[in-house]
UniProtKB/TrEMBL annotation:
Protein keywords: Gluconate utilization, Oxidoreductase
Source taxon at top rank: Bacteria
Sequence similarity: Belongs to the 6-phosphogluconate dehydrogenase family.
Matches recorded under Gene3D superfamilies: N-(1-d-carboxylethyl)-l-norvaline Dehydrogenase, domain 2, NAD(P)-binding Rossmann-like Domain
Pfam families with a match to the protein in the record: 6PGD, NAD_binding_2
Annotated source species: Planosporangium thailandense
InterPro entries named among the record's database cross-references: 6-PGluconate_DH-like_C_sf, 6DGDH_YqeC, 6PGD_dom2, 6PGDH_C, 6PGDH_NADP-bd, NAD(P)-bd_dom_sf, Pgluconate_DH
6-phosphogluconate dehydrogenase C-terminal domain residues: 159-286
Protein's recorded name: Decarboxylating 6-phosphogluconate dehydrogenase
SMART domains named in the record: 6PGD
Amino acid sequence: MQLGLVGLGRMGGNMRERLRRAGHEVVGYDRNPQVSDVASLGDLVGKLSAPRVVWVMVPAGVTEATIDELAGLMSEGDIIIDGGNSRFSDDRPRAERLGTKGIGYIDVGVSGGVWGIEYGYGLMVGGADEHVQRCMPIFESLKPEGPYGFVHAGGVGAGHYAKMVHNGIEYGLMHAYAEGYELLKASEYVDNVPGVIKSWREGTVVKSWLLDLLDRALDEDSELAGIRGYAEDTGEGRWTVEEAIRLAVPMNAIAASLFARFASRQEDSPAMKAVAALRFQFGGHAVKKD
């Protein structure tokens, strides 16, 4: 199958390679001319035979502008796929806008990171049945082998919604492993913390790919001394908690893991300053001065 792919960064570039290995013709465009197959979006569209399919894999801040530019170049019967980390609520307005021109729209939540080129990408897809079915050869080549790693989750917006929840769960899982690691490090009983983590990789109910990656990180730096305890969030965790509030769904672990990321960015927490001041005021407890 022929595909246009816009955005050839860490994931997009690897997706292009995985699809080419599977026999698909992929024309890629990126602002970096060293990795791009063509000089512009116009050149990319021009090299594709109608009806076209173009997959957009760019940062959220430029997704809208990229899709709008593509829409001005593409024709009725074409399909645009957004595989970036867009907010789910942007999808339906986008699909309606493209629909007035006869252009189909699919949203795809993509998981797999830099490992997807070898092991496949988890794909959560939203869109009309006819559009999804037309793109199935692409999805089949990107997903892992076997029965898992792909879902047509529902109509437009369902793919990005599923990916949002996936990433919210990821926040909670990562933080659970991180707290366990910290407790092991603090214990006077355990002498071989990396060994404990490694031992959990098989035969335990907590084994997972995330645990494998923590073990890999400890192999590279057993004390994690070269890493600062600062964690960004890319949006999905916040959106997941916002949806939990909207739908009155209790989400204690995911919310706590999101707030822990916020706390990681405070070298001297104003909230903890207030706690220390209150403890001194009501109980005369010692306060550490700068």
